[in-house]
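Q: What would this chain look like folded?
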Amino acid sequence: MSEQPDEAAVRARLRGVRDPDLGDDIVSLDLVNEIEIDHEAAGIRVDLALGAPYSPAETAMAGETRTALSEFGYDVDITATVRERSPEEILSGVGNVIAVASGKGGVGKSTVAVNLAAGLSELGARVGLFDADIYGPNVPRLVDAEEQPQVSTEETIIPPERFGIKLMSMDFLVGSDDPVIWRGPMVHKVLTQLWADVEWGTLDYMVIDLPPGTGDTQLSMLQTVPVTGAVIVTTPQQVAVDDARKGLEMFAEHETPVLGIVENMSGFQCPDCGSEHPIFGTGGGREFADEVELPFLGDVPLDIGVREGGDGDKLPVMTDSETGSTLRSLARTTADMQGLVHRREHSTSRA
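A: My prediction, written as structure tokens:
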């Protein structure tokens, strides 16, 4: 043991750990919430303002923090707290609520939402997936969910699980073939009840699959749910990008951070000839992201495996295919962007 550390010595070491996105050290950025030193047990606990569990960027920062303090010869424990949540708050046990949205239908938004949730779960996170597409719920079909929700003795809903993800969908409640014809107030009431009455437990992420457009469901969610970030899905062609712009404006009006843009159906991968064909064009989503100065989260090809939703035992994000690699990168980058939003807000508020 080279020296017996005090808090000043620990902070001095931590000034060598930099946030790669915010461009300064974690002490100067006020990302060190608390330092506890137990000389008797030879342990140091450091609580960091990290809010995106299993984000590769934040995992790396935690690792660098542990390395920076290892020379003291003490056991190092890294904890993470970015914000306190009131038990009375809706979804109080959920760390991050990520809404997946699109300006128009038919762009594969639900497919992106399902694979994003599964990708986060594959990283090790505790994940919930809420299918808020009241008028066209199809998440249960995409994940091949056969189990139905149960009701607890306290008359709350116990969500079924698939691929390690807790699921809730209107499809479970009304049936896949039954039309839903509801007006705005009823949509708001039902969604609020589902968010409040489902036993989600403690989750690192909840992914919400929104219906396309900017209607009652989106408004209800933004008014009642603590959305921490949004992902906007578009296809490459201009008409889809124009509609995606409306979704971006909706989140901006409600001061909801947009984590980035996904371009879906970005070229067709022919399983026979192996070549790629830009059926809907290519690059429209990336150009849109550059124009509005938002991160580009990835371009997902028009892949038969994605259309079929996997082989029943695996979703596309869980396969060894090129599309699977793209979807895993999407999940990692989305988590990184959510973490960056939290750290930037925390650092600014404490400045």
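The longest strand covers residues 258-269.
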